[in-house]
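> @MW can you paste both from yesterday?
MW: sure, first one:
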Amino acid sequence: MALVRKGLVSVAKRGLSPQITLIPFKSQRLFCNEPSSSNPLLKKLLQVPSSLIKTTLDSDDRFALRNSAFPWDALVAGLPSLSSEKAQLVLEWKLEKMLKENERDYDQYLNLMSLCAKTRNVPLAMHVFTSMEAHGIKPTASVFNSLLHACLCLNDAITAFSLFEIMERSEGYKPDSETYETFIIGFSSLGNAVAMKSWYSAKKAAGYCATLQTYESLISGCIKSGDFDGAEKFYEEIRSIGIMPNEHILENLLEGFCRQRRFRQAKELLKSFLDVGREISVKMAKKIVCLYSEYGKVEEMEELLSTVVESGQVVEVMLQVHSGIIRMYATLNRLDDAEYSVGRMLKQGLAFRCANDVEKVICCYFRKEAYDRLDIFLEHIKGSHKLSKSTYDLLIAGYRRAGLSQRLDSVIKDMELSGVL
């Protein structure tokens, strides 16, 4: 056990450099990043000086570590809002409490190391590890994997490789499937396809099978690095062994096709997705709509709309396509088609969600000098869409430029009544 601790100290000295580039590790093992400003304890921690962080955490019995009332989840979610020093003190406090209570649950230590990764604090993760050993808790492969994850959060490959070597030389915590997966996920997140593929080969050579998670990481990493052929190769591989690709895999493939302007392949991918009864994600809808819009593919966009309506996609997906069509027609100054598309969307019970979409249509009316038709359009959307200040400003500028003082006065009055002015 002491040998492990000495090895880790050596690793830390060699691998942790103040010049290291801090690159966040966006793996599939995500943490909650929602702000928790409503949490009273977090508010206190934000206000007190660093010297009082631990005292504040200890100040109330109801915040005891094992008390179910302790707002740990909310506090963890708020860690990013704290300074790095305060975040470290919070995690140190948790470790001290765990050791004082003689905590033996490995998951508690794994979670703490993961939090160190979230706050990009590898030295503290190392400290958690060595503290476990000092208290007689033998390391396991899972603990090492959590430490590897913390290192890869900072793109600290040197330390990660050194830890892997320690695992290889050990008897009780040799690299397992998750070890290789951690490296694959880490390098995938960084878009380092070469290193990612090398660890994939190493995983297979070690006798471990690829999982859905493995392929998700491989395809994502290939797309990030622009290795589109590699992404397609892994996609074919996953299909050949009978694993059903998940939403993230298909989103990444679609992104690859869109970046390459491969319209036919993008269309076929969506069709294959729908043929097996799967739903298109909002992210996928945005990608394909953006591609079609960029190249003015009106007919393809209309066909996409028919497809999503017939297949009963969720409202957000249908709205993405409707809005894309409306924006396209407005940009092309095809006012008749834009009006028809707006009416079609409203009849389906959908409404504008974005002020920018409304403003593109308004600009089309102004370019066509179709002021009476603009009045009708505004009347139609009044019940389902509240005009923003930017939209009112656009109307004021347009009417002023056209010299339509009566309409200008009407818009200003509407602004006053709606409380925008």
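MW: second:
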Amino acid sequence: MKTEVLQIRWHYDANDDHTPIYSVDFQKNGKNRFATCGGDGKIRVWKYTCDDENLTPKIEYLSTLSRHAQAVNVVRFSSQGDVLATAGDEGTIFLWVPSSSPAATLADDAEELALAKEYWKVKTVCRSMGAEVYDICWSQDESYIVAGAMDNSIRIYNTQTGQLLFQKFDHLHYVQGVAWDPLNKYVVTQSSDRSLCVYKFEKQNRDSSFPQLNLKSRIHRIEYTNAQNSKPSSIPTEQISSVEEKKLQENNSCNDANLLTSDSQINLDSDVVSEGGTENASKITYSLYCNETLVSFFRRPDFSPDGLLLITPAGKLRLHGQPNAESMHTAYIFTRSSISRQPVASLTGFSKPAIAVRFSPILYELRQASKHSPPTTCIEIPYRMIFAIACQDAVYIYDTQSCKPFYRAANLHYSTLTDLAWSDDGTILLMTSIDGFCSSIKFTPEELGNLYEQQVAIPTKRATPVVTLPTPAEPNKELKLSKDYNVKDNEPSRPQKRRIAPTPLYPQN
């Protein structure tokens, strides 16, 4: 594998200064074609090629899409890759399709038009009330698109007509991330109000082609028993090690998946209790997610390609039985059976908050047991899925067999990360940053393992998943932290004057 900061002019303003890059996405079946967007109000389409011998990436410019009047916050290709959806600060969603000739607009640049190798035009426009759109996601059948906006709303549009079909204001602050279930049963939204809203498709209305979508649950706090008044609550977990570079070089892994106790339950009805506060002598509650002071525009969750898992960023974990302990940054894992109740596990060990999660579209065979991998799988499914978590300062790459990061890349950028994207074959991971640059991690097929040959169907209609996941283990072990474990809730540092060289960290053999 090779990690590299791609030093080219991505997005820039009238003074030729780099503007932030807010999102990136690969086109399915597009032969490594991808799109980026940023603070200059434009979308650019590129092609990623690589020298197989030394894994040196090469970026080819293809086109510039100019229609937005303000910054563009998100780009997402449809599941088949033939339509590109973009949304930004003016609140309008544009759906783009390839064109044989340029469609000139006032925002076009003559130089960019001369260099363009392909053209795109707007097919459909989805209009809202003008609130900034932070995140969008396609339905599996490409019939609908969901958007989360700054006016605390979630909106769903018909992608053929642009008609607004659904609108709700269940959040109390900005909606910074949305995800559409591949099995077409749930829509999930994440907000800076510290909550995760889970919507479920119900029986279709007679007078509407769009199924009824109801709020199933609003997950924002977890409640557990106070250890001072009862038996200590415990979490079955392994020892957690530091994420610092020296510790990663000394240990084979930097963090683990911590199973939450089965008796921990989300309290959805009572008023919010301050973090670490108590409702009574035996109950303690704390918020699951960071509040609105988190310095990021985005909290981007993601479903696994088979729809069995949901991972949400921006988590804050307070250890059970230790209400006065410093909370840790985490990402929470939900299964389909727990998606409306509580997370079943947490991924800890981050020095900064998690911003975005993205699953690779490729499934892999399970690895055989060795001294570096456990004999049993962490999640009981017959294949491995790989996913990446972008924190403000680093990217962690996991697989579902061990739920431990097998790769970590740090010091790629001097400002916070914003988005992630996997290529169609799962060998390229792109990352975007506020500093105006993109980074890439290129894998060889041998590093990721053998492809899972059996077909895993993802139906377009609601269905029950074929594979079930185990329930959390019974709490029979006390949580123990290493003596040198220390995580600080640092605010994002100021941009440095010079770029720091990438520091990819590998497991020791």
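> thanks! Confidence is low (pLDDT under 50) at residues 229-255, 261-281, 459-509.
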